[in-house]
Amino acid sequence: MKAASFAYLRPADLDSALDALAEHGEEAKVLAGGQSLVPMLNLRLARPGVLVDINRIGLDEIALDGDVLVLGGLVRHVALERDPVVAREAPLLARAAPLIGHAAIRNRGTVAGSLAHADPAAELGAVALALDAVVVARSAGGERAIPATELFESPFSTTLRPDELITAVRFPRHGSWACAYQEMAIRAGDFAVAGAAVVLRLADGERVGEARIALSGVAGVPVRATEAEAVLTGAPLDEEHVAAAARAAADAARPSGDVHGSADYRRHLAGVLTRRALLDAARGGP
Amino acid sequence: MTWATTAGMGPPTIATGHEGMLTEFVVNGRPVQLRLDPRRHLADVLRQDLGLVATHLGCEHGVCGSCTVRVDGDLVRSCLMLGVQADGTRVETVEGLAGPDHLHPVQQGFAREHGLQCGFCTPGFLMATLDLLERTPHPTDEEIREHLSGNICRCTGYVNIVKAVRWAAEHMPAGDDG
Description:
A: 5-stranded antiparallel sheet, 14 strands, B: 6 strands, 28% helix, globular
């Protein structure tokens, strides 16, 4: 299939992009990396009247702002794999990045684009939720900060307005925390059936000071496993507590089944992947 | 408002199917200038407008990897990039690999180790292999499999493809950047 016709706008700066979105609103789609949108165009699952290509408006910087790592709205997945600041200050991003699609996908796809696309199985949704990331959305009318907890509405749907563009994503620095991402995909690089992001602050070596666990692919949106976090907080990271946290994570899952896995299987994966991610994080592994 | 301006089209840069959008890029070292309907992806532009039909289109929605080329030195699925987005870039396709009287070591590896049967997926594999060996001249089998994981082959079972990449790694000229 070939994409249907659309008007193509290629603004050269942010203000022009926001003006274009203000003008064309509902009928416009933002083209960032295009790794989800262009397949939808080719398959005619999406038929926007206007495409606003933001690839030439900058926004590709990675910077530190106090306790926050700020990724510009056009930072691509490949940068998460290669950037030494990301590896040092936001290691969960660096660990999840190689699991996103394949090399050619990561060269084009963007972090903000993945969040805006809101595929419930996407790695970055769970990562953003686990880290309490904040999305900075701008429109011609102004700017607002959307916490990750308030971004995802339903599968492929967010609280972003049609005239808004994600100009940055703010991830709290967590270089001294233990973290890991685990997922189960039918084929390496495919969208995962389910995944688990784990971030742990170890208080006195063995005991967990604070735990953050987020799951992908087990509900219509990425979910925090708050009960599992509570099980671990203040507890040693031993077999008993890891198993209890895994059970609580499975209980947090609200999956529906599809061709890639039944609801029961996804719930099972939520527990297994949480356990694996906790053990990985404890070992300081991937 | 500031718009990207391209020669021959006044601002704003808006193009519809009828007028086309002037697009200039360099493909395999050759500068090209085209007027493109923005809805057409780069793979179709390469194949239909430039006659570079060695880039194959398998699934046309970013799953199979057959259409993999390089844009500004990075692997890209050319079915997931619009032709107009190539404006100002440097595109490499599999046609650029061989010299006038010899195959590129990557191509030789696939031929010698039977890294293909029907050959449909091979252009994408060759470009992904080139990219791997330029970044990682001596990859492990795991690195080979990881870097080629975005390319699907329905004939070989991949074992001979991994052997082909190993052969190419041993025969890439030192410092060759393609």
